[in-house]
Amino acid sequence: MKLFASNTSPFVRKVRVVLREKGAEGLVTEEIVVAREDPPALHAANPLGKIPALILNDGMALFDSPVICEYLDTTLPGPSLLPASGPKRWKVLRLEAAADGILDAGVATIYEGMRPTDERSPAAMLRWRNAIIRSLDFLESELGATFASPDIGLIAVGCALGYLDFRFPDIAWRDTRPALAAHFEALSARRSFKETMPRA
Questions:
Q1: Who contacts 86 (Cβ-Cβ below 8 Å, separation ≥6)?
Q2: Which listed CATH number (3.30.390.30, 3.90.226.10, 1.20.1050.10, 1.10.3720.10) goes with 86-191?
Q3: Is pTM beyond 0.70 here?
């Protein structure tokens, strides 16, 4: 399999972490691309022109990190990272959705900040920042103090928090969220997170 990737994308990091948690990183080669440069190979794999995109061994392409992560979890051996059904599955998927929403707002803020100053929307950037703050507070109340084995929801949360450290250190999310900080510390000690730290 081949993964279209970058070294800074938190969505790519989710896939990399899942591969390592499944003990399957050796099954995937990576092609580093810059999505904003619109490489034709990426467009052939994902018409949206976004990463990650995963080319399967039969040539089919999957895109969007939740789809790729669920595919890897259900087709590869190793510990299950997403419950098959029931309330636990919906809780995991809700965590993933909140974390991915933080990432969507963060990435949108970064791209907005790349626009010429007179073309930026301060109102939109403030709205995205407020969405991040509310979502962090939601995750703090949702997770509680007990750390369990990582699942796709916790992996997404860890990648979101790591991205905030990387791109938005001024948010200082740890200051009033001890449960989140404890979960992130436990995740960061795992090989899967150590080996996938974002690199500028």
A1: none
A2: 1.20.1050.10
A3: yes
